[in-house]
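Before we proceed, please read the two lines closing this message. Let me know whether the structure tokens fit the sequence:

…
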Amino acid sequence: MASRRSEDTLVRTSITIPQTLLGKVSELVASGYFANRSEVVRQALREYLQRLEWTERLSESEEEYVGALVYVFDHEKAGVELVDVQHEYRDVIIATTHMHITERLCLEVLLLRGKGSEISELSKRIRGTKGVKQAKLTVARVEE
């Protein structure tokens, strides 16, 4: 039997997550999408880290990009800070759309155009704002 490389050695750890999130993970396992809950977490972490790595590369780019940043947030926790960030990046944000999901949760879509580094920094600022539940950036390089 071949031995695992040292970087592939599995280690046991624990995480604290909301019960509802754990329930969704368990449903994925029960549905047969994954062998176990650890595999769900491993795959999610791989994909998230890969996306962050790509965002880091974008942060070093001076080329022009267009894109959309879609995020869900709790307006009671993040509202004012998000508006302040949007005003700081008014040269990059071309348009915004706001939707009320529940009494407290909102979805916003920012349409963007600018240097990769500016778009990346804006994305990091939004993603790092307290009350932002999730955020996804999609970009395309402007080629003429």
Notes: The chain is about 40% helix and 30% strand. The longest strand covers residues 64-74. The chain has two domains: 19-54, 61-141. The domain at 61-141 is CATH 3.30.70.1150 (Alpha-Beta Plaits).
